[in-house]
Amino acid sequence: MSPFRSFVIKETRHILRDVRTLTVLLMLPIVMVLLFGFAIRTDVEDVRLIIVDPSSDVRSAELVRDFNATPAFRVEKVLPSSSGAEDLLRQGKADAVLILPIDFARSFERGTAQAMVLTDGINANFAQAVSNQAEAVIGRWQAGHSGQRPLIATAPRMRFNPTLASENLFVPGLLAFVLTLVSALMTAISIAREKETGTLELLLVSPLRPLQIVVGKVTPYLLLAFTNAITTLVVAWLAFRVPIEGSLVLLLASSLLYVLVALAIGVFISTKSADQRAAMMATLLALLLPTLALSGFVFPISSMPAPLQVVTKVVPATWFIRIVRGIMLKGIGVELLWKELLILTGMAAFLITVSTRSFSDRLDG
Amino acid sequence: MNTILFMVQKETLQVLRDRKMLIQIFVPPVMQLLILAQAMTFEVSHVDMVVVDQDHSPASSTLVEHFTATGRFSIAVSTQSGHAADEALLTREARMILRIPDGFERNLRRGESPSLQLIMDAEDGAAAGIVLGWAQSVIQGYARTEGVRLVGAPVGRRAGPALTVTTRRLYNPEGRYLAYMAIGLLASLMTLVGVLLTSQNIAREKEIGTLEQLNVTPITKREFMLGKLIPFWILGLIELTIGLAVIRFLFGIPFEGAVGLIYLAAAVYLIAALGLGLFVSTISSTQQQAQFITFFVLVTFFFMGGIFTPVQSMPMWAQSVAELNPIKHFAVILRGVLMKGATLTDILRPLGAMTAFAVVVLVLSVRRYRKTA
After folding, report:
1. For residue B75, what pLDDT is reported?
2. A289 touching B (Cβ < 8 Å)
3. Res. A154: pLDDT tops 90
């Protein structure tokens, strides 16, 4: 058997023997897809509402009934006066307060009725969505009374994501995150550990060339990453029906490309780190956190301040996420994604060259 | 008692001597806080739109002007072709298409409720909702002034019964995300560093063999754990102080409530978090395992704890699970005190929940740890 083949087999055995880490690595995509899909949402549903109803008459009863019937809201309490309502907001026991007018029925007939919606504004968009919903409920109630048609009707259509499902937005980024974790973090720590325990020196005196050592170390993680990519897509489809509108082949090919980028970064980091702890910290800070926050994964790039938008262009995950979203949600292919693919390929080529050279230098030096 | 003091002294000396680790504990989190908090925002700033005007009337031009006059919308593409409009969405040149059908002004004059079509790029559903809200309020504003004028009814006459609604957003008048996210980030970074340090520290001692040496001494399990926890607990509080200083002085975010309450909550929270790290170390035999399990557990806790997205948006079962999550309560307390001016009585419930978690996790860790293992 060639030295290279036995080396790859040794590496694979190492990984398979560490059952705990392996379990975490294989379970990670499944748990994260489910987590993100079920838990990370920005929907307005069952929002805890306090209604302050000083008049307690026919009109207010109608409104209270309407709010009770809306799934967006859950009427926690109906209070006779507004004292104590704001306390509930401050204590985090309610999300919004609706204050109805005094003498509602009469002022409504005269056209002078005034109501106020107070929202807990600490999460700005959520507060905005809550007040939009409250206004919509009140608007529908009013339309029911006046029977007037609106002057202009709007027919909105949500493209690429008709159900506004958050998971459609997150799954592409999740793919990038999982691949980065397995490819970069695992590789960096693995090589750093060999450095720490001194077994890397042993590899030096073997007939393996530096390039073979790198490829041999990296191959099992490449397979693992690829497996994770497929698991992520399958779970996303089974649990949330996240579509793949475009070419699956292009999707998998792009994933492979991204894995190569991440692996190269992992190798590079390992050559610069003295021990496992440093390797982990470096990968976490230089790659994982930017992938989480600066790639458009969760937080939209268009919302960021201009200098940070420039920084996002350096993060490989930014381009990968664009490609995956384009393929999965919009069904576009190479003809519209060529720019992103080219950049990712360029990054891969550059990083692989730099990291293998750095690795060879370290071994010889 | 003396044993605990000796352990604390030994741990502290080790930490202080490890320059690299000290830098890793303090510098990266501060940098992350500075940079990432500014990136983590969901604010929708600007909307590039496509206008497909098939009416070519004064009314339709005025409508378009109403959009651009807000300063939030700008016309990226103006076309007659539905295909070109669609492609603008596909290539992200624009995120909204406004289609004004033929006969718009005519139908408006006759009071026949013409329909405008709005096509949104809903990849980001939440942002699309916000943009749609803006677009609809522009259209309603147009209807109230221009539309009514075209129909011939005098503007400003109240026709029949009406209820006017005003909305007021408390605690965040400017609607910015910086305070919300910076606080969430601070809580996460404190947790990350604290739990990682603890779990890794003990796993490392296991790996290099010094743990066994400790185990043959008469030190009890409790003394050992306290000795390990106390130095990292102090470090966690120092980190909190630095983070709060960044938020208060570098970001210029005022504190509405008493900082003392924050320290009280952090003192309890750190015990819970470090106890978790301790527990992870009892189930790992190598540093790599400790790192991985910590990472896995923490990411789950962060996202299920409503740090970056509202807990209220989660399904009911997830909200119930979040009640068991100490970081959820810590974030509620932090945001409550700093952004809403909450008092001690306001935060008693989450404080109690964190204490319960801390007690449980410490008891479990002490039980699991075996000196002879």
Report:
1. 94
2. yes
3. no
Which domains are assigned to chain B? 22-41+177-368 (no CATH), 47-151 (3.40.1710.10)
CB–CB of B318 and A38 under 8 A?
A: yes
Q: What percent of chain B has pLDDT over 70?
A: 96
Q: Please name the member of A127, A298, A329 whose beta carbon is closest to the beta carbon of B169.
A: A127
* Size of chain A, expressed as the number of residues it contains: 365
Interface of A with B in 153-192 (CB under 8 A): 153-166, 168-169, 189
Give A254 to chain B, closest Cα distance, Å: 18
B-facing residues of A in 97-126 (CB < 8 A) are 101, 108-126
Minimum Cα–Cα distance from A335: chain B residue: B91
Average pLDDT over residues B217-235: 87
Find which of A138, A149, A224, A277 to mutate to test the B interface (most B CBs within 10 Å of its CB).
Answer: A277
Whether A271 contacts chain B with CB within 8 A: no
In whole angstroms, what is the distance from residue A358 CA to residue B14 CA?
32
pLDDT, tens digit, 9 for 90 and up, residues A70-120: 998 999 999 998 888 888 888 888 999 999 998 888 888 887 888 999 999
If we measure between CA atoms, which residue out of A323, A144, A107, A153 comes closest to residue A229?
A323
Residue B160: the pLDDT is 64
The residue with tokens 């449980």 is: B360
State the average pLDDT over residues A294-320.
90
Q: Which DSSP state fits A148? A: P
Please indicate if any CB of chain A lies within 8 Å of the CB of B19.
no
Map out the domains of chain A with their CATH numbers. Answer: 3-40+162-364 (no CATH), 47-146 (3.40.1710.10)
pTM: 0.83
Reported as a pLDDT band with limits 50, 70 and 90, residue B372 is: low
In sequence order, what E strands does B230-333 have? none
